[in-house]
Amino acid sequence: FLGRQRELVEIGEKLKAARPPFTLTLHGIGGTGKTALLRAALERFAWRFPAGVLAVPLEPLPDYASLLGQLEQFSGLPDDPTLTQAARTARLLDRLDSQRILLALDNFESLNHAREGNDPEKAEQAADLHDFFSQLPARGVALLVTSREPTGLPGEQRLSVAGLQDEFGARLFLGLVASRSGDLSPEQAMAISRAV
Q1: What is the rounded distance in angstroms from the CA atom of residue 141 to the CA atom of residue 135?
Q2: Would the pTM of this model clear 0.90, i.e. be above it?
Q3: 49-96 residue pLDDT tens
Q4: CB 170: neighbour CB atoms within 10 A?
């Protein structure tokens, strides 16, 4: 994974030492590679979580019932249409209790923005999701999150994700445009990397 070895090592060390409540937020401005780093970390460290790893994108914001269904299926709970949403939540939290699960949440700032937004329905939906996610770390579910801002989740530690160093940015750029680069030199690619 180009240019992110230091961050991957740090993520691995934090996941290895994780004790409830645990939330690790890959924090940085948009376009720095937080999602790509999240994916690489999930591939590399999934073996540390014998009960499983699940990634949930938060853009667009999922509705609460859909998220519950996804997590019920993931954790092996049978569908029970007779249960209320509150009963489903309690049953799921009981199932997740003390299991070694890693839940990845991508674009958490979308949830924060919806909580603070002008749409009351979305704000309530986002508040319900935040309340649910806030209960997971104490139950032993490790959260690995990407966000442009703090999450407010229990046990949050932040790992800053900045742009790639110039040399890695240049190599990435050359690799991405290799078929179209024509006469693009490594020096020109380095200049482009510095500029962005």
Answers
A1: 9
A2: no
A3: 999 999 999 999 999 999 999 999 999 999 999 999 999 999 999 999
A4: 21
CA–CA distance, 79 with 69 (Å, rounded to integer):
8
User: Rounded to whole angstroms, how far apart are CA atoms 152 and 157?
Assistant: 10
Are 129 and 62 spatial neighbours (Cβ–Cβ below 8 Å)? yes
DSSP the chain: -TT-HHHHHHHHHHHHH--SS-EEEEE--TTSSHHHHHHHHHHHHGGG-TTEEEEEE-SSPPPHHHHHHHHHHHHTPPP-TTS-HHHHHHHHHHHHTT--EEEEEE-HHHHHHHHHSS-HHHHHHHHHHHHHHHHTGGGTEEEEEEESS----TTEEEEE--PPPHHHHHHHHHHHTTTT-TT--HHHHHHHHHH-
- CA 140 vs CA 21, 72, 102, 132: distances in Å: 7, 17, 9, 14
- The residues, ordered by sequence, that sit 6+ positions from 145 with a Cβ below 8 Å of its Cβ are 23, 24, 25, 26, 104, 105, 106, 108, 151, 153
